[in-house]
Prior knowledge:
The protein is mainly beta. The chain has a domain at about 105-275. It contains five helices and 25 strands. The chain has helices at about 1-5, 10-20, 25-30, 35-40, 45-55; strands at about 60-75, 80-95, 95-105, 115-120, 125-130, 135-140, 145, 160-175, 180-195, 200-215, 220-225, 235, 245, 250-255, 260-265, 270-275, 285-290, 295-305, 305-315, 325-335, 335-345, 345-350, 355-360, 365-370, 375-380. The strands form six sheets. Strands 12, 13, 14, 15 and 16 form a five-stranded antiparallel β-sheet that branches. It is globular. The chain starts with a helix and ends in an 8-residue tail after the last strand.
Amino acid sequence: xxxxxxxxTPEDKVVEILSKLPxxxxxxxKCIRKSWCTIICSPSFVAKHLSxxxxxxxxxxxxxxxxxxxxxxxxxxxxxxxxFWSMINLSIDSDNLHYDVENLNIPFPMEDEDNVELHGYxxxxxxxxxGKNVLLCNPATGEFRQLPDSSxxxxxxxxxFGLETIFKGMGFGYDCKAKEYKVVRxxxxxxCEYSEDGESYYERILLPHTAEVYTTTTNSWxxxxxxxxxxxxxxxxxxxxSVYLKGFCYWFAYDNGExxxxxxxxxxxxxxxxxxxxxxxxxxxxxxxxxxxxxxxxCYRHEDDCELFEIWVMDDYDGIQSSWTKLLTIGPLKDxxxxxxxxxxxxxxxLGSYGRAASCNSNTGNLKYLHIPPIIKxxxxxxxxxxxxK
Length: 390
């Protein structure tokens, strides 16, 4: 150990200290010294900082990224929404829940009427749809990149007949083989016969889905093969979106029953993963999220004005086959809509009625609300990083 310390250079010590600092401090320190800027911008340092952040995630603290909005309606029937990006730093000691809220300023373009939808997350970067635009954004650094328009999503037909293309699902993650980030988008197609006013249709014939992949290195989309039933429906759970883990994107979908749909970012192929059967117990699967280094799915059953939740974890997925293990049962709980993530071994973050956030202890059933107004639209377990998006 002493030999390692003696051989350590002053620059090594600087790198070690800087790699443990939060992104906001590192962005400021880039302007202090040119040598520090060179270190902080280097790929090796970015990877080291990300690794340290991942290690911190396994401690008793957690960082939650959330998006809130508050709509103001005026007497002239116009409306405006205020949007808020925040990070919540959570910790527990002696069964007491502590948290502080840090508001963020992310200056990407947005109109008053635009919705913000979360569609993927990987290494501190989130994939969003803001209005009609797809963005990659690192909330910790405030950087964002607007992606080019799709070649498969077409404008609405102007005539009475036409092809209608509808966005149905999007995922984002890291291709470990090519060492680059990718966005995958799934599109539903149908032939439509519209009424004379062009706002409603008489007949709608479903056609095969199409899909495309965007890569950050080429900054462009390309069409790829997708083979799924035209009857497939994608669950638009506001707090789920897609999940990324170890080179795969996952979605929750429905086609004569619920299942998980996956995409291998390396070979760019899709696969279907069956969920365990819970029909006989009146449980219904409803969404997916990450639990440590596994994909988890939850099902629920309504009883006596309360919800009873089961959380299942996917084991040993090899791209084709998998098995599921029931992790825990939570509830019955009243006024709770969705489980979001297990941020500690026995604490699960949940979203309640009216956009309220709560943390539930799976052992004791104790539910503690986080008082964070106004309405929460979505929230997710987050790791702060300095991974660039530009």
